[in-house]
From TrEMBL:
InterPro entries: Homeodomain-like_sf (IPR009057), HTH-type_TetR-like_transc_reg (IPR050109), HTH_TetR (IPR001647). Gene3D superfamilies: Homeodomain-like (1.10.10.60), Tetracycline Repressor, domain 2 (1.10.357.10). Residues 28-47 bind DNA. This is Transcriptional regulator, TetR family. SUPFAM superfamilies: Homeodomain-like. Keywords: DNA-binding, Transcription, Transcription regulation. It comes from the Bacteria. GO terms for molecular function: DNA-binding transcription factor activity; transcription cis-regulatory region binding. Residues 5-65 form the HTH tetR-type domain. It comes from Neorhizobium galegae bv. officinalis.
Length: 200
């Protein structure tokens, strides 16, 4: 990591709690500079505006989260355990940082307005990763999609829809965990191999 990247990360790290505390509209570049312990002039050398800084933070958060999701799906274990880990990684990376904040809805709205392309790119990658994982599980007969008359791509879209629903759960507490368990139980039940076709 070079000096510029290090300074950018320092600024983005400092900006997140400021946005969470004050919301996007009320946060100023002066607030962020103060939190990062740098001058406003130094801040403007890195970012021309609050909007540009917010986009950079969104891009970094999505990139890091998708790396964690990829690692979760690549790890050993059942397809259901790996998808569960991927959902948790998604929640922890993109939802948990705003947990308990009064400005969560405003920040999500700001993200949709200022960085929709970043979210769409991450969503497309997520679809590809899930489709690949589910296709491999089907090939090894860990799951059977025939009874559902569906394909890995369609099932991946269902998982993504569930992840989208998590955006409305700002507290990863018992309700969130119960939701994950119920969703995965239904997924496992619906894709269980027929008798005599169970995978290794």
């Amino acid at each position: 990591m070079n000096k510029t990247d290090s300074k950018t990360d320092l600024i983005l790290d400092a900006a997140l709690p400021v946005f969470v505390r004050f919301g996007f509209r009320k946060t100023t570049m002066a607030d962020i500079a103060r939190a990062a312990k740098i001058s406003r002039a130094s801040l403007y050398l890195c970012f021309n505006s609050k909007e540009e800084l917010f986009r950079a933070g969104s891009k970094r958060a999505h990139s890091r989260t998708m790396n964690d999701v990829t690692a979760a799906l690549d790890r050993p274990g059942s397809i259901f355990d790996r998808i569960t880990a991927a959902i948790r990684a998604f929640q922890e990376g993109l939802i948990a940082p705003f947990r308990g904040g009064h400005n969560a809805e405003e920040l999500f709205a700001a993200s949709n307005e200022l960085a929709p392309d970043i979210a769409l790119e991450a969503r497309a990658k997520l679809m590809d990763l899930l489709t690949k994982a589910l296709s491999e599980a089907e090939k090894t007969q860990e799951i059977d999609l025939t009874p559902l008359q569906t394909q890995a791509t369609e099932l991946a879209a269902l998982v993504v829809a569930a992840m989208d629903g998590i955006k409305h759960t700002h507290d990863a507490g018992p309700e969130f965990e119960s939701g994950i368990r119920l969703f995965m139980a239904l997924l496992k039940l619906g894709t269980a191999p027929q008798l005599g076709q169970a995978g290794p």
